[in-house]
Amino acid sequence: MITQPNYTVDARRLDELSAVELYALLKMRVDVFVVEQNCPYPELDGKDADALHLRLLQDRDLIAAARIFAPADKDAPAKIGRVVVSPAHRGKRLGEAVMREAISVCEERYPQAPIYLSAQSHLSRFYGSFGFETTSEEYLEDGIPHVDMVRQVR
Asked: For 62-103, what is each residue's pLDDT tens digit?
């Protein structure tokens, strides 16, 4: 039986994070997306200042995170990206938890907007379980197969 850890949800802009909080967030993303996935790419892509950073914290430890972007205009979707779970906390269904929280933030802040994400292809069923539908052919992003997915407004 897998038990759900207790966690708190924090969603803040980049300039609202302390240096220590930002370091923990960026370290986790680099550890997973660059080192673990053996994918040298520009993780620091210049977009963090425009994002809302959703973090799941257990006590003061970062256990999962995602990046959320507001719709670019009235017809554009909100975007979820950089969904990541700490390697030390895998197997606790935190991927599901961070996605539920990210969707909730998008629906609360941008209720009229669909939600877009670029999913690693092997995770399309996972994202599909949250109502996302594949909207593109498979493509390579940084050498990893991806598909575009959208969750329509409910």
From this structure: 999 999 999 999 899 999 999 999 999 999 999 999 999 999
First to last CA, the chain: 32
Nearest to 147, CA basis, from 115, 113, 112, 122 = 122
Q: Are 52 and 65 in contact (CB under 8 A)?
A: no
Q: Is 66 helix (H, G, I), strand (E, B) or coil?
A: strand
Q: Dihedrals φ, ψ of 105, to 5°?
A: -65, -45
Instruction: Say which amino acid occupies 145.
Output: P
Burial class (CB in 10 A: 0-12, 13-18, 19+), 87: exposed
Asked whether the beta carbons of 41 and 82 are under 8 A apart, the reply is: no
